[in-house]
Amino acid sequence: MKIKMNLKITLITFLLAFTFLGCKKENTFSDYKYNDKPEVLACNGLNSKLYQEALYSFEDDILNYYGKAKPNTSLVQAYSQLLRNSIYGRLKFEDVISEHTVKVFEVLKNEDDLWDANNTKSHLNYSSNIIKCISNNMQDKSLKTTFDALISTNSLSPKLFGTPLMSKYRTALNDKYLATYIALDLYYSKLFDIDLSKVNFDEPEPLDFNVIPQKSDTSAQTN
Questions:
Q1: pTM above 0.85, yes or no
Q2: Which DSSP letter does residue 20 get?
Q3: What Å distances lie between residue 124 and 66, 167, 176, CA to CA?
Q4: pLDDT band at 29 (very low <50, low <70, confident <90, very high)
């Protein structure tokens, strides 16, 4: 009877510790801005709330960045530009990233099995649970077939999958699993190569070209 009681106490202690650790991991990030947005991932064992924050912060970043040159830029146009520029290394991520996204990225760094230091094609771990979740739920059948084939042959890379992806970038608007892959592999993964401590988030005030500079008054010079 005493042994059973001890076992019961041990089991309860273990479950409480497990629950505490799980909650601690889930709540390591508290600065959520997109709680009102629709959920994007529905896979067991993932910190879905954090990945949702990462996706929406990424989408805001690219929309704001490409909207500077073209104010009426839509999200689908921003995806098109981001894919092309990221895949071919023509994007200065320090010009795109927001301060909030940096905060999200610092937490993403600590996500279990998300990153792979030995992956020479990307910092992303292509065997991670999030990649399995994305693969299982990708809506476009042809993209899914290509995605799975590249993973199975250990050939997945931003460039190889990016080629078919560029012709179907509109899919990311409705398929948030695909959009999450884009955010992780073509955006957040690239941030490892940037010294984020040197990024200046203080935007200069825009110049008003309608204001004529005033000439300095030199008529009252002292003798």
A1: no
A2: H
A3: 25, 23, 18
A4: confident
The more confident residue out of 100 and 42 is 100
Per the listing, tokens 């894919």 go with 83
Apex 146 CA angle, 173 and 169, nearest 5: 25
- Residue 15 burial by Cβ neighbours in a 10 Å radius (0-12, 13-18, 19+): exposed
- Residue 123, judged by CB atoms within 10 A of its CB (0-12, 13-18, 19+), counts as buried
Helix (H) or strand (E) holding 4: helix 2-26
Contact 133, 102 (CB under 8 A): no
Say if residue 31's pLDDT is above 60.
yes
Own/partner contacts of 75-79, CB < 8 Å, gap of 24 or more, are 75/173, 76/169, 76/170, 76/172, 76/173, 79/169, 79/170, 79/172, 79/173, 79/179, 79/182
